Amino acid sequence: MNPTNPRATVRTRQILHDLEAVRENLLALSDDIWLSIDHNDPEALEGGVEFKRAFNAKAAAFDVVASELSELVQQYTSVRLEESEQSGGADHQANDRIIAELNREEPHSLEEDFTFKRPHGVIFQSKATTGITTWQRLYELVLRQLYDDDPERLITLCDHPDFTTNRGNPTFTRDQDRLRKAMQICGGLFVESNLSANGVRDVLRRVLETIGIATDTLQIFLRQDRDAGRSADES
Length: 235
Prior knowledge:
Blueprint: H1 6-36, H2 42-77, E1 86-87, H3 92-102, E2 119-124, E3 127-130, H4 135-149, H5 151-155, E4 172-173, E5 182-186, E6 189-192, H6 197-211, E7 218-222, H7 223-234
Antiparallel strand pairs: 1-3, 2-3, 2-7, 4-6, 5-6
Helix pairs in contact: 1-2, 4-6
């Protein structure tokens, strides 16, 4: 791709965003339908289990194709989803500016329902990032910040019973082959990332509660609120 063609770059980035949005919305739809089933009705429950099995198989196949397409496009075009992000990091002035910008919007907590909603910013323990495009990216940023602050504290979750299912499937592990969709945090630490928006919410809330960090130190800012604010300003 010609790097001097801004329209092509914008179009490519939008396609990458759409791929991620479809992936996350499929997971949200699966959760939504499952919760709507009357689990006390044996016939409805049996039908729901059959649906989930078929849906999960198709969604997993789509996830593989979408991930491969996204990586292929990003490699060829050099357009990256993370390019739109701004993070304060060690630059206190930049961090304060981003926090001030985000604080013009409504903050959201880990107690809310994020079905079919999308993030664009986060403030966690007074460190801010904006320009986020997916829940998976927000998940990654928060976990990496926790790792950078105290690696051993996060690594201990690999052996914590609250992060292993009844069937023995871990959320955190040193063996990526044990995960359906592994996301590398750092070094040899991997986390399950095949999660809907509410799945990300639940894991982050459980992590913070387990390691003793107040959940209200994490504030999430939604794209719909930002866009609504822009529309109001334009009118």
